[in-house]
Amino acid sequence: MAIGLHDSEVKNPVLRWVDQRLPVITMLQKEYGTFPTPRNFNYFWNFGALAVITLVIMILTGVFLSMNYTAHTTLAFESVERIMRDVNYGWLMRYVHMNGASMFFIVVFIHIYRGMYYGSYKAPRELLWMLGVVIFLLMMATAFLGYVLPWGQMSFWGATVITNLFSAFPLIGPEIVTWLWGGFSVDNPTLNRFFSLHYLLPFVITGVVFLHVAALHVTGSNNPLGIEPKGPQDTLPFHPYYTIKDSVGMVAYFALFALLVFFMPNYLGHPDNYIPANPLVTPAHIVPEWYFLPFYAILRAVPDKLGGVLLMFGSILIWFALPWLDTSKVRSMRFRPIARIFFFLWVISFFVLMYVGGKPAEQPYVIIAQVATAYYFLWFLVILPLLGKYERTLPLPESIAAAVLGPRASTGGGPLPGAATAKPMEKA
Amino acid sequence: MADSMAPQMAQAAPGDVPGTTKRDFLMLTTAAFAAVGVGGIVWPFVSSMAPARDVLALASTEVDISPIAAGQSVTVMWRGKPVFVRNRTEEEVREARSVPMSELKDPATDESRVKRDNWLVVVGVCTHLGCVPLGQKPTDAKGDYNGWFCPCHGSHYDTSARIRRGPAPSNLLVPDYAFTSDTMIRIG
Amino acid sequence: MKLLKVLAVTVAVAMSSPVLAAGEAPAPPNARFGFNSFFGSFDRGAQQRGFQVYKEVCAACHGMRLLSYRNLLDLGLSEPAVRAIAAGYTVQDGPNDEGQMFERPARLSDRFRSPFPNEQAARAGNNGALPPDLSVIVKARHDGANYVRALLTGYVEPPPGVTLADGMHYNEYFPGHQIAMPNVLNDGQVEFADGTRATVDQMARDVTTFLAWAAEPETEQRKQMGVKILIFLAILGGLVYATKRKMWAEVKH
After folding, report:
1. Which residues of C touch A408 (CB under 8 A)?
2. Which of A103, A369, B36, C59 is deepest in the core (most CB within 10 A)?
3. According to its UniProt record, which protein family does this protein belong to (chain B) (predicted)?
């Protein structure tokens, strides 16, 4: 672009004045107005927008909660209960924030499964996918830090157990843990730094989300068929078609969210976290929040301390390599009959791990966890690479339009037959 | 590849097809509903910054005035601010009531500022810029009018805590209070 | 769609297995408390009687440090009545002008007075056991309300072969069954002002209602608001979906 005022097409003189100097309106119009989006999205493509709105909800409620929270071991528990009892609508904000973490993970898990099923991680979207994995890791860190803040029994012992993971590293492990704690156990310095980082990380997440979306708008979205749009007949402008479709999903999502917040706010939580932290008594049965359970199960499936820790971190880090582990030319599993079966088994193994992660570390849960862990890694390291070589995939449709409109429209980028269905495209 | 298609795309929604007006009505209704929803979300956030229930519970305070002898004052904390409670001598009351209104910067009779002749209850915050005036302790400077004196910018208050000289614009504020018995007052 | 179904089923399976409390105690029976239902609200009479049971029985050992006397206004008691209740307790205040701490009658803004000044004193006075603070006890136990009620009525003779440790009592619903708290409720132990017969079961139900309110005083407001919001979302959802249908009507997808 040449140096000088932006050549704005905005009519309103005030907005035009702004847009000439800082073309945000042109940008919004291009990226969220006319942005060409595959016409065949299903409702699984709602989940990116749902994740963004959840991030906004979490930051808003979090900022307002922090106005009344006190990060000190003697006051944290009481300040949270004061929010629940005395602050106007404090209970609402806290329950939205608390259950919002769970809702965030539900949304993001589905978003990830969707990406895996439809091959959204494949070229040219590898970096888009990897940025997503970074967001997921940051989310896990933020959720863990936040869970410590109410300073209940689960907060304290969760913090103790998770920080102790780092002691598994040889030689410097114990020093790392002391450094993380800022003392010789989880105590006030730990709580203070956790609060500071819990406030910071969501803004880091926001930054990576911007990069994630920017990368998305370079390559454009994948779609259920996994084939690239070949021309305007394959796409629709993002607005109004997908703004309204995302809105449908959003209202349904809010209804589920409201059900949790207003009628069963503590269902996903652990009652022990309403007992103030006590460094002298460990609760009988420590479990992390449900969204950590699959990874926690992998940790416990390995009898070796360091091995368990490495495997647990590896179970997420391996997602970074997914674009290269999957060697198939076909993206969408709609056309991969064998891979589809193995993928569903992988999703099941994920939920099995989630289930046994919440059970005591005894038989038969240990052996189940080991089998599920083995399959978890087998899928990535063996099955996917081999399938790329040997799987016989189904024939791909010629284009998105061909698959959606029937064979008549399968004329590539040329003008469509004058069917009423194609009206929006003709006006383009 | 997606970028190359962008210029060809339609500006917005397809227009003049049958049913447009019905759709517009539907869209407006939906948008109005959504706007109501957003408004409803904003309120709890705004409200959460107003004083909480435990803060409001401390909004009134009770003072036992039986130990305060004539000519003595106590300072009590009320809503985070000092309140001066003074048991005035007859001399001080006479002094306050003999001042002609024309001499006052913020005219108010002494009778309008007290509930019982000898008891003066005022918020001890100078109406100039919020300092706490001197005059509570017997050793304090009481200013030229035998009441209170604000050391920050030199405001002089009389025995009815009315501003007499200096930059302060108005008299020391009389809070809401009531005698719950002969020896107790409730402020706020 | 198929993927959705599989997900829904797996999620349902994963979520329907809440982590059980440790110990071999049986699940407490469902006492069908009204406040646990969808539109649930507290029975004011039960709350007031429950407070009386707490005040006359439980409060000898258990504090409720997160509650203030002003909170009792929510039970439907009048302000003079609550002021009188508060004035029945003394709390420490000070220091006064002489630098001494002093005792004064409690006001509405004061927290409930705890029976013991600190944990050590509480243990010393209770044979080494610590009576837990009851402010959030119903939130702090799995299936809290049913559990508390079951525990209060769950004192039975120990089965043959069980030897109780010194100072312990046998309770059917306590994890591990050996509990330091003795059976404190006996028929007619308190005299209710409203004429309700003070059976053990009645007192247990009433005090549980009181404790459930104390743990989650926002329950009524929360559920009422939730119903309104769900109705609003149902209407908005219908409108948004109709708009979506209209918009997409001209587009085959």
Report:
1. none
2. A369
3. Belongs to the Rieske iron-sulfur protein family.
Q: C247 and B54 in contact by Cβ < 8 A? A: no
List Cβ<8 Å contacts ≥24 apart for A60-69.
A60/B45, A61/A93, A61/A94, A61/A96, A61/A97, A61/A100, A62/A97, A62/A199, A62/A202, A64/A93, A64/B45, A64/B48, A64/B49, A65/A90, A65/A93, A65/A94, A65/A97, A66/A199, A67/B48, A67/B49, A68/B48, A68/B52, A69/A149, A69/A195
Q: What is the pLDDT of residues A337-364, one digit of tens each?
A: 999 999 999 999 999 999 999 998 888 9
pLDDT bracket for residue C161 (50, 70, 90): confident
Q: Taking CB atoms and an 8 Å cutoff, what residues of chain C touch B37?
A: 232, 236
Paired tokens of A22:
């800082």
Query: Which tens digits make up the pLDDT trace of C33-84?
Result: 999 988 889 999 999 999 999 999 999 999 999 999 999 999 999 999 999 9
Q: How far apart are CA C219 and CA C209, in angstroms?
A: 12
Catalytic residues of A: 217, 221, 245-246, 289
CA–CA distance from C203 to each of A321, C54, C232 (Å)? 62, 9, 40
Please determine, for residue A393, whether its predicted confidence score (pLDDT) is greater than 50.
yes
List the single residue in B with minimal CA-CA distance to A231: B5
- Strand extents, DSSP E, B9-145: 61-64, 73-78, 81-87, 119-123
Considering only residues 48 to 67 of chain B, which have any Cβ-Cβ distance to chain C shorter than 8 Å? Answer: 53-54, 57-58, 62
Mean of per-residue pLDDT scores for chain C: 88
Q: For residues C72 and C51, what is the distance between their CA atoms, to the nearest angstrom?
A: 9
- Residues A281-301 have a mean pLDDT of 92
Give the three-state DSSP class for B147.
strand
Distance from the Cα of residue B136 to its chain's centroid: 22
* Residues of chain B with C-beta less than 8 angstroms from the C-beta of C243: 23, 26-27, 30
Cα(C226)–Cα(A96) distance, integer angstroms:
12
The interface predicted TM-score (ipTM) is 0.88
In this predicted structure, the answer to whether residue B170 has a pLDDT above a threshold of 80 is yes
Catalytic residue list of B: 153
The burial class, CB within 10 Å (0-12 / 13-18 / 19+), for C193 is: exposed
* pTM exceeds 0.90: no
Looking at the DSSP bridge assignments, the partners of residue B149 are B134, B156
- Indicate the pLDDT class of residue A253, thresholds 50, 70 and 90: very high
Q: What is the dihedral of CA A12, A15, A18, A21, to 10 degrees?
A: -50
Cα–Cα dist A65/A76, whole Å: 12
Which residue on chain B is closest to A222 by alpha carbon?
A: B2
Mean pLDDT of all residues in A392-404 = 91
Task: Name which CATH class applies to C2-67+111-217.
Answer: mainly alpha
Taking the C-alpha atoms of residue B155 and residue B171, their distance in angstroms, rounded to an integer, is 10
Q: Which chains touch A (3 or more CB pairs under 8 A)?
A: B, C
Contact list, C241 vs chain A (CB under 8 Å): 248, 251
Q: Check the CA dihedral A230-A234-A240-A241 and report its sign.
A: negative
DSSP label of A38: E
> pLDDT by residue (tens digit) across B86-98?
999 998 999 889 8
- Alpha-carbon distance of A191 to A145, in angstroms, equals 9
CA–CA dist A153, A240 (Å, integer): 49
**pLDDT at A97 exceeding the cut of 80:** yes
**Interchain CB distance below 8 Å, B9 and A60:** no
- How many residues can be counted in chain C? 253
Closest residue to B48, CB basis, from A82, A93, A239: A93
All structural domains of chain C with their residue ranges: 2-67+111-217, 220-253
Which of C232, C239, C244, C245 to mutate: most B Cβ within 10 Å? C239
> Of the candidates B6, B12, B49, which has its C-beta nearest A30's C-beta?
B6
